[in-house]
Amino acid sequence: MAGADRHRPVERLVPRLRGRDDPGAGRGRHPQLARGDRRQRTADLLRECPHRRRRRPGHRGGGPGQPLLPLRVDRRSGRLHCRQPLLHHRRTGVAGDARRGRDPGDLRPRRRRGVHRVPPHRGVAALFRRGDIRVPAGPGRGCPGGAARTRRSRPTRPRPVGPRRSARSRHRPGRCRRPAVTAPAGLAPTPTPATPGVTPLLRHTAVPRWLWLAPALALLPALVPFAHLIGRVLGSGSRIGEVVLSAETGRLVANTGLLVILVITSTAIIGIGAAWLTEATDLPARPIWRVVVALPLVMPSYVIALALLAATGSRGYLSDLTGLNIPSLTGLPGAWLTLTIATYPYVYLAAGAALRRLDPAHEEAARGLGAGPARTFRTIVLPQLRPAVGAGLLVVALYTLSDFGAVSLVRFDSFSRVVYAQYAGRLDRTPAAVLAVLLVLLALVVVWAEWRTRGHAAYHGRPVRRTPRLAALGTRGRVIGIATLGALATVSLTLPIGVLLAWAGRATEAGRDIPWQGMQGSLTAAALAAAVAAVLALPTAVLLTRHSSAATRWVERTAYAVFALPHVTVGLAMVFFAARYLGGLYQSLAVLIAVYAAVFFAQALGPVRAAVLQVSPSIEEASRSLGAGPVRTMLRVTAPMVRRGLFTGALLVFLTTMKELPATLLLRPTGFETLAVDVWSAADSLLYSRAAIPAILLLLVAALPTYLLTRRER
User: Fold this and answer.
1) Is residue 712 part of a domain?
2) How many Å apart are CA 650 and CA 705, to the nearest integer?
3) Measuring CA to CA, how many Å separate 340 from each of 343, 637, 680?
4) How many other C-beta atoms are found inside a 10 Å radius of the C-beta of residue 426?
5) Are 360 and 466 in contact (CB under 8 A)?
6) Within 13 Å of residue 521, how many CA atoms lie on the same side as its CB?
7) What is the pLDDT of residue 344?
8) Same structural domain for residues 7 and 66?
9) Is 626 exposed, middle or buried (0-12, 13-18, 19+ CB in 10 A)?
10) Alpha-carbon dihedral sign for residues 389, 390, 391, 392
11) Which of 334, 451, 615, 652 has the smallest count of CB within 10 Å of its CB?
């Protein structure tokens, strides 16, 4: 070495590996290029670093014309650390990199999989490292000079001594992979006794048993009664064939199937059309229309049915106002219109979110090839909306199958109404149990049909980095669009609320009081169910995210399957189970809360699981390394960081429990009233003025959680 390099005792220059130098560099073009004969340079290198292994015959190593790489030199011994350069490098094989799809000129170090041991450095204790998770490793075997070997953290075992690596060269000075670092006085790590419950994070960690307790407590109140219901049906013998093969059952299947087909068709047309008008066109006041079109989601189906019944018929509000004899909306037309108004926001919200994510380049390419607006929408936009619209229609179909309040008020014979009538009007309740199981099978058929029509097409694409161009409607198109959305808002929002306010005014003039007892019961049951579901959702979310396995995935699927079960079936199953096995707990508030939490547990689990996924596991492992147990870590570290997800899940459960009707009718304690029960009881007796006040109170109470959820989303 000559010149400035002789004044740099810490770094020396050695040949760099083949294949990573600049293609334009060559011998004699740079002062740091190797010079001289290859054999002479190899001998000089072995003299500087005697522990460097000789290359195998045929190995393509460094040669003349290759750049030099600075390496570290031990200040104490003066030896060259040939194993650890200042710059990361790796062995290169052009053929091997080509087979693995790597760039031979890539200078980035290879990432090792598994668990690695990070050596102590500047007083910091040794760590086990896996990704971004680090936990204390405790004292381990180190190298001369105080540096721990960077080895895979697994139990040491004797290695065979062979010609490639001898036992004498294993612990020679200068063989360390890391430079020797001496910790300052007073900062050196001292061995500490093992803390109970603090273990390194390995690839396979045992799942704490108490984590399985949370999903069991949440889901068993619905699963065990349902299993008992199936056992009771299978034990009824020949009665199964009599009920299944009867003409009444065939008529129920036809009525329910026809209602589902009509509702999903109308909701698809309304939802997609409203989403296109509010998201993809230049319609005036689009933000206001987005809120107005989605507001019917707050109203329960039986409240909408009550408003339509109170507005039509010979005694309806519209007949009194106009003097015309408007026919009453009962039977299939009333059920179709009511469920369409109650469920089209599910399709609208899903389609609107999908439209905002679409890449406008697809539509522009189609228009550039000569396709018109209608053909572009039919062949380009609609296929890309298929997954979102399919998910929304699945929710609509399951909602229609399990709905009880609307079909019972409009006097339409569907499965849910007949199941409740068979239970309440007969001493022999075997037909009700058989019909409830058939309703579950019909729901499974709907889920299977959606899965079969899903297809295997790929819908992903490059991220949308520019705002899509809005479709110009023109003056005539804007008038038609505003008129369409205005008519939709009138039928689904203005008419129900206006009729309820009118009937509530009549009730106030008649001196009817506010149903405080029903309001207190609704708030109590909804708050307790939301609290129980949120508390059980936290450990379940930790189980699903931190200990993912086939068993935990089945736990999540079971939670959503229970949510998809018709609520009248779950309530009837709990009635049979509690009457036989629970004794004094039959028709108690505890059983009602347990069923609420089980049925709506999936609504709380979704937001909490999403929040836990955003928490880095290294924070929890740091708490464990400081001596905190798993329960304390979850309560003191995880819970505060996922409080937004917990609040969102609790609000969803609260909102849904406030509107729940069939399970409340079947399981409520004697004398326990809710707003939903008050509305249904009064409307079933055609006392519309008496039902209007609790309906308005229910809308006001349900509007607060909806506003909070919308505010948090923004």
Assistant:
1) no
2) 10
3) 5, 45, 19
4) 11
5) yes
6) 23
7) 92
8) yes
9) exposed
10) positive
11) 451
Task: Band the pLDDT of 150: cuts 50, 70, 90.
Answer: very low
Q: How is residue 285 written in tokens?
A: 């006041």
- What totals of helices (H) and strands (E) does the chain contain, helices first? 29, 6
Residue 60's domain comprises 3-100
Specify the pLDDT at position 176.
43
- Say if CB 222 and CB 594 are below 8 A apart: no
- Specify whether 450 is located in the same domain as 529: no
Q: For the purposes of burial, counting CB atoms within 10 Å of the CB of 333, is it exposed (0-12), middle (13-18) or buried (19 or more)?
A: middle
Rounded Cα distance, 534 and 597, in Å: 9
Q: Which two tokens stand for residue 267?
A: 């909701």
Percent of the chain with pLDDT over 90: 15
Residue 388 in contact with residue 354, Cβ under 8 Å?
yes
pLDDT at residue 32 is higher than 50: no
Is 0.70 surpassed by the pTM of this model?
A: no
Last residue of a domain, one of 635, 653, 672: 672
C-alpha closest to that of 488 among 207, 290, 686, 211: 290
How far are the Cα atoms of 62, 214, 427 from residue 621, in angstroms, in the given order?
44, 22, 59
Same domain, 500 and 573: no
Report the C-alpha gap between 336 and 263 in whole angstroms: 6
Report the C-alpha gap between 201 and 620 in whole angstroms: 11
How many other C-beta atoms are found inside a 10 Å radius of the C-beta of residue 30?
12
Q: How far apart are CA 26 and CA 43, in angstroms?
A: 22
Total length of the chain: 714
Q: Tell me if residue 242 falls in helix, strand or coil.
A: helix
Q: Name residues whose C-beta falls within 8 Å of residue 406's C-beta, 6 or more positions apart in sequence.
A: 301, 302, 304, 305, 335, 338, 339, 342
Q: What is the 3-state secondary structure (H, E, C) of 546-576?
A: HCCCHHHHHHHHHHHHHHHCCHHHHHHHHHH
For residue 353, what is the enclosing H or E element? helix 331-357
Structure tokens at 496: 């129900």
Residue 606 lies inside a defined structural domain of this protein? yes
Task: Give the residue from 268, 211, 229 showing the smallest Cα distance to 542.
Answer: 211
Q: Are residues 301 and 338 in the same domain?
A: yes
Segment 596-615 mean pLDDT: 89
Specify the CATH number for the domain of residue 340.
1.10.3720.10
Instruction: Give the span between the Cα atoms of 681 and 311, in whole angstroms.
Output: 18
Candidates 420, 416, 438; CA nearest to 429 is 420
Other CB atoms within a 10 A radius of the CB of residue 234 amount to: 10
Yes or no: say if 284 and 482 are a contact pair by the CB < 8 Å rule. yes
Q: Are residues 650 and 525 in the same domain?
A: yes
Residues sharing a CB contact under 8 Å with residue 558, sequence separation 6 or more, in sequence order: 215, 219, 223
Range 583-598 burial, b when 16+ CB lie within 10 A, else e: eeebbbbebbbbbbbb
Tell me which residue has tokens 């650390």.
81
Instruction: Compute the distance between CA of residue 694 and CA of residue 525 in angstroms, rounded to an integer.
Output: 16
Residue 26 in contact with residue 7, Cβ under 8 Å?
A: no
316-356 tens-digit pLDDT:
778 877 777 888 888 899 999 999 999 999 899 888 888 88
* Domain stop point among 59, 81, 100: 100
Whole-angstrom CA distances from 30 to 8, 39, 433 are: 19, 21, 89
Chain mean position to CA 43: 62
Same domain for 281 and 400, yes or no, is yes
Residue 275 lies in a domain: yes
Report the SS3 class of residue 13: strand
Q: How many domains in the chain?
A: 3
Q: Say whether 69 sits in a helix, a strand or coil.
A: strand
Alpha-helical (H) ranges within 428-509 are: 430-452, 474-489, 495-509
Q: Is residue 691 part of a domain?
A: no
- Does residue 374 sit in the same domain as residue 264? yes
Plot region of 565 (φ>0 → left; ψ -120 to 50 → alpha; else → beta): beta
Q: 521 and 505, same structural domain?
A: no
